[in-house]
């Protein structure tokens, strides 16, 4: 009996769903870094009922990881054990009220900003500068140019690890700098955002200014994960941003294998072409070591790292 169970693949142990499972699903191509191993199984739920039923009935020992469009994600070379969930079209709706926006977790931040602009809803322009989804923005309290999700979110819906639906107020979302207190294994489904009425042309102009600023200050056309480290709050940092500490420690342009700290914005780690996830993570750790030695500050990763390293002797 035990032996028979051991022979079962993960896929065979998973509940029947209406959505799609894929075994050994490549993830590198869907993350911004373009590195990393496959998901043991990926799951695209058909809709929220399908997702809830999956969470309710899957074996308790199977780990689940949800991802957006991988713009803040380093997938390690050995891949991600368990099930990786990617929310599809059914979770990407955007509905506009007079000054409110309800956006599905899979909606791209840019699309939400554009829909709000078209309807004359101001205040969400900052989302046009973040290349992720609303789910990722809720998890990370994404922000740019002086505004973050904390400033515009009224409420959100999420499923817990047993598939139960929760409606969360702003206070319950517990947003702090690039962080939400909501349990790591909850999956956001949608957010209700509050804006204010304005002329679409004026909103569009502010979005253009954001785009221009990004173009000139960030390596947005490279394989990167955005800001690698959070700006530190520690007193040793003396108000300096992560990039200033990295620059001060001589790490601008530093390389390991195919990974490099960007010359343009030295808190951005980039894959110059043939980096492995191990190159990228090792370079990040080397930067942390040098910054600590130079300034005493312990930089914390802002990029989320998931999965396991490649097995020794096995090429990624
Ligand atoms: C060029 C570039 C510029 C960037 N600039 C900015 C910036 O200005 N400001 C900023 O805040 N960020 C920035 N980022 C980082 C990134 O875009 C944001 O963190 C974004 O919110 C991540 O969204 P995502 O959909 O890509 O999430 P992913 O990278 O796929 O995942 C990030 C985290 O969110 C979790 N997650 C994703 N979807 C859900 C969900 N539905 N429910 C629960 N958890 C979920 C994942 O588990 C993971 O922990 C930048 C990135 C790049 C590459």
Q: Helicity level, as a percent range?
A: 25-40%
Shape category: globular
Number of DSSP strand runs: 21
Q: How are the strands of the biggest sheet laid out side by side?
A: 6-7-15-11-12
Which hetero ligands occur in this complex? flavin-adenine dinucleotide
Largest sheet geometry: 5 strands, antiparallel
Question: How confident is the prediction overall: mean pLDDT?
Answer: 95
* Helix/strand structural class: alpha+beta
Rg, Cα atoms, Å: 20 Å
Oligomer: single chain
Distance from first to last alpha carbon: 35 Å
Beta-strand content: 25-35%
Q: Count the helices. How many?
A: 10
Q: Uncertain segments of ≥5 residues (pLDDT<50)? A: none
Describe what you observe in this structure:
- The protein is of the alpha+beta class and 316 residues long.
- The chain contains ten helices and 21 strands.
- Strand 9 and strand 10 form a beta hairpin.
- The chain starts with a helix and ends in a 10-residue tail after the last strand.
- The site of flavin-adenine dinucleotide (FAD) has 32 residues, from strand 3, helix 5, strand 9, strand 15 and strand 17.
């Amino acid at each position: 009996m035990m032996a028979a169970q051991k022979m079962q693949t993960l896929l065979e142990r998973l509940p029947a769903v209406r959505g799609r499972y894929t075994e050994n699903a490549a993830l590198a191509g869907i993350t911004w870094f373009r590195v990393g191993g496959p998901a043991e199984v990926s799951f695209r739920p058909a809709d929220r009922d399908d997702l809830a039923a999956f969470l309710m009935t899957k074996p308790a020992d199977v780990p689940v990881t949800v991802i957006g469009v991988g713009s803040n994600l380093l997938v390690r070379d050995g891949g991600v054990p368990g099930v990786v969930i990617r929310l599809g079209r059914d979770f990407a709706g955007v509905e506009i009220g007079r000054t409110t926006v309800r956006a599905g977790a899979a909606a791209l931040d840019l699309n939400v900003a554009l829909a709000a602009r078209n309807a004359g809803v101001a205040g969400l322009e900052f989302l046009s500068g973040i290349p992720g989804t609303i789910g990722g923005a809720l998890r990370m309290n994404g922000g740019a140019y002086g505004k973050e999700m904390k400033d515009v979110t009224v409420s959100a819906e999420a499923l817990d690890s047993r598939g139960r639906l929760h409606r969360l107020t702003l206070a319950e979302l517990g947003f702090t700098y690039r962080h939400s207190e909501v349990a790591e294994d909850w999956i956001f489904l949608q957010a209700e955002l509050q804006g204010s009425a304005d002329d679409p042309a004026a909103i569009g102009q502010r979005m253009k200014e954001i785009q221009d600023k990004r173009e000139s200050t960030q390596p947005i056309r490279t394989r990167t994960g955005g800001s690698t480290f959070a700006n530190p709050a520690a007193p040793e940092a003396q108000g300096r941003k992560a990039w200033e500490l990295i620059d001060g420690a001589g790490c601008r342009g530093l390389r390991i294998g195919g990974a490099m700290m960007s010359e343009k914005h030295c808190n951005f780690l980039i894959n110059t072409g043939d980096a492995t996830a191990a190159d990228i993570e090792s370079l990040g750790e080397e930067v942390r070591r040098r910054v600590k030695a130079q300034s005493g500050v312990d930089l914390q990763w802002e990029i989320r790292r998931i999965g396991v390293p490649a097995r020794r002797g096995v090429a990624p």
